Amino acid sequence: MTDSIFDSAVFNQNLFFPRPDFRPASGSAEDIFVPVEDAVTVHVRKHPTAEASFSLLYFHGNGEVVSDYDDLAPAFWDMGCDFLVCEYRGYGKSGGFPTLRSAMEDSRKIYEHLLKENCLKQKVAVMGRSLGSASVIELCSRYPEINSCVVESGYADPIPLVQRRGLTIDSTTPEEDSLFNNSQKIKKVECPLLIMHGAEDFLIQPQEAELNFKNAGSAIKQLEILRGVGHNDIMFAQGNHYFRTLKEFLGSVYDN
Questions:
Q1: Distances (CA, A) of 243 to 31, 94, 232, 233
Q2: What is the rounded CA–CA span in Å between residue 96 and residue 179?
Q3: pLDDT tens, position by position, for the chain (256 residues)?
Q4: Taking the domains of the chain in order of start, what are their residue ranges?
Q5: Do 212 and 174 contact (CB within 8 A), yes or no?
Q6: 159-168: which pairs have CB atoms within 8 A and are 24 or more residues apart?
Q7: Which candidate, 75, 89, 74, places its Cα nearest to that of 41?
Q8: pTM of model > 0.90
Q9: Which CATH number applies to 5-17+25-254?
Q10: Burial classification of residue 75, based on how many CB atoms lie within 10 Å of its CB (0-12 exposed, 13-18 middle, 19 or more buried)
Q11: Which residues on adjacent β-strands are paired with residue 226?
Q12: Could you tell me which residues come within 8 angstroms of residue 2 by beta carbon, excluding any fewer than 6 positions away?
């Protein structure tokens, strides 16, 4: 692919908001550094628990870092999983510079490295928040052995993604769609799928969640539009709706 706006510096510099992360792993947490390019590694923090029956590979949102999720590990342990939080290039303790293309490529390298190094349980779930939705849809579209997928506050069509960066684009090529268009790629996702989105999300509209849900190839799929929350406060939905929905979905896949 040549001359794609998705590979341009102006797009990627406006898309990503990396920040450093100096917080060390504590307790039972383990820092893993995955080689993705010559002299470039990306950081994964694994929070294991003896009670885990599966691994949850989590790709966080833009502007976040791995240690933002340290205090949330017990909430995910309660769902019966080892919790692994993945970084992007340039974020936290990771090297290099982030691009949307490298985020896709690195998600595959992370998954394959963790498999090779026996860092994952036999059963694996993937979950992506906001920008991280692209990474998990990429994984599930390519690795049918992944057992379940959770998309939180994810985008669908990449054209609005570009326009939110203050840039102009009227169409995308088939080559661009094959890598960057979540609403097209999700047609290849066949594992059980949960899509969660805040009803008051004005950054990525709930209609994008509805489009991804409509197009998803999964026979078992669930869409939850959480009332009273938006893009960055979705975890605080009333009635513990966020964690309750997530636990029930994962339980339906892994408790059988």
A1: 25, 29, 15, 13
A2: 21
A3: 458 999 999 999 999 999 999 999 999 999 999 999 999 999 999 999 999 999 999 999 999 999 999 999 999 999 999 999 999 999 999 999 999 999 999 999 999 999 999 999 999 999 999 999 999 999 999 999 999 999 999 999 999 999 999 998 999 999 999 999 999 999 999 999 999 999 999 999 999 999 999 999 999 999 999 999 999 999 999 999 999 999 999 999 999 6
A4: 5-17+25-254
A5: no
A6: 160/208, 161/15, 162/5, 162/6, 162/11, 164/203, 165/11, 165/14, 165/15, 166/14, 167/5, 167/10, 167/11, 167/14
A7: 89
A8: yes
A9: 3.40.50.1820
A10: middle
A11: 198
A12: none
Tokens 């929905």, residue?
245
**DSSP per-residue codes, 178-206:** HHH-HHHHGGG--S-EEEEEETT-SSS-H
